[in-house]
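Morning F.,

Quick status update on the modeling queue. The single chain you submitted on Monday has been processed. Sequence for confirmation:
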Amino acid sequence: MDRPVNIIDKIGSLIPGYRGYVEREGRRNCDRTLREKVSDDLSIFEKVIVREINNAINKSEMDKMRRLESERKDVNTLLSKIRYAPYGASSFFSDQQIKEEELMTIYQYDLDLAESVDRLVSIDLSESMSETINNIEDILVKRNQFIKENK
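Structure tokens below.
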């Protein structure tokens, strides 16, 4: 069921390029929202790791503490890469029309990124996180490279 056209929609339809602007803003907002959610999930997960590190210290489990601290640093680095990666302002969101297949590729990278972070934050902390963290970094690098190549 289509919603009724309001006055803003009518005015917008009269302004050349307005529809494209709204669509670009939507992509910017979607990208920003995804990055914020993923970053927030990683930030919460990092706090869980810190609590586990403190437990390991209290139990004098120094090997476990060292492993967790190393992995916590990796999670923090990953969090920063995602949170502070450029979004919205890149020429990917310029006035040029994005091909549907390129947009679908970006959406697939976004989905892969979000699903991989969900897997990471559900890992039992007795297991190594390195492989999952490396996988997430690979997805992010491939996504950013794809955007750069398709400006």
